[in-house]
Fold this protein.
Amino acid sequence: MKLTLKPADRTVPLAPERPVLEAALAARLNLPHSCRGGSCGACLGRLLAGRIHYPRGRPLGLSAAEESAGWILLCQAVADTDLVVELREQLPAGEAEIKTLPCRVARLERLAPDVMAVYLRLPAVESFRFRAGQYVDVLLPGAKRRSFSIASPPHDAELLELHVRRVSGGEFSERVFNGLAVGALLSIEGPLGRFRYEPTAATGPLLLVAGGTGLAPIKSILRSLLHHGLDRDVHVYFGARHEIDLYEDAWLAAEAGRTPRLHYVPVLSESTPAESRRRRTGLVHEAVLADFASLADADVYAAGPPPMIAALAAALPARGLAPGRLHSDSFEYAPREPG
Ligand SMILES: Cc1cc2nc3c(=O)[nH]c(=O)nc-3n(C[C@H](O)[C@H](O)[C@H](O)COP(=O)(O)OP(=O)(O)OC[C@H]3O[C@@H](n4cnc5c(N)ncnc54)[C@H](O)[C@@H]3O)c2cc1C
Ligand code: FES
């Protein structure tokens, strides 16, 4: 069986009982995707010919109306026949090649009680090109994979920096906190993802909004912007529960102190009374809304937990943010495969 992608007319082989998206990624096509769990809708395509089925039933991210209009979610769809699929977005020309690379853990640094920075050294002979905002998948035994955003910027890719939040019972993140040693060998695949900074000629404010380890891709974008020089006002909003979770707070405050057009706004959601006397409190999207009556000519890049992204997507259009100018990376996590 084969998949033909329109309008690019690329053809890739399909394996029986394997999701269409996986086959496309295995063939090195960087199709839009994020959660791989059927919830984020990033991998939506229109089925022009052929038949598919969903082994676990219609995924949550696909409405009945979308399904009857011919839309499918490629991360969940399994082909019954040859398929012709039109992508929601065209494949951009010059897309960075997705590579599977071995890498060594060069350094581990505890950033917060439940966040570890993992620095990975890539093979010296391999070039690894990516865009600020993208992520990699860490490949685990048994064809499992876990997504982590790249916190280092493209101009400084000698070590790849990841921020891993500990998830209770999490197969990979628990290993990062208990047992992963400097020198250990990992395998990664990337760069992945369509959340990436797009330079523009706009002069309005640029808002970078992070929740938790959503700071990772935001740090990559910010370091990239600082490297090239700020040509517009940049406002970094960082939401965390407590002060101790505001990792990179000192670095962000120092950069804002020496960069006139950079503004840093940390916001605590579960502050103690003492913390509330020192810091701004509430939800990070509420702080954005309180500070900006109008977001006309603004661009917003937001990364973090799905509820934060959903709240921004619901509220920002009413502030005049133009369609397409909210760029977001929702840290969805797929339901776990057995075994
Ligand atoms: C595009 C993208 C980028 C991401 N970037 C980052 C990043 O930079 N840093 C980061 O820490 N995470 C990031 N994530 C989330 C991360 O991929 C998941 O949290 C991952 O599943 C953790 O792997 P694990 O093996 O430790 O846990 P798993 O073995 O995958 O999960 C164990 C259990 O916890 C649940 N679970 C998994 N993740 C979470 C979570 N975040 N919150 C609550 N429950 C969860 C699972 O459903 C499962 O029941 C990103 C996700 C996406 C889609
Ligand atoms: S729904 Fe397919 S990648 Fe999220």
Notes: Residues 34-35, 135, 146-149, 163-165, 167, 169-173, 193, 213, 216, 329, 331-333, 335-336 surround flavin-adenine dinucleotide (ligand 1) (CB under 6 Å). Residues 215-228 form the longest helix (14 residues). Residues 66 and 112 are 42 Å apart (CA to CA).
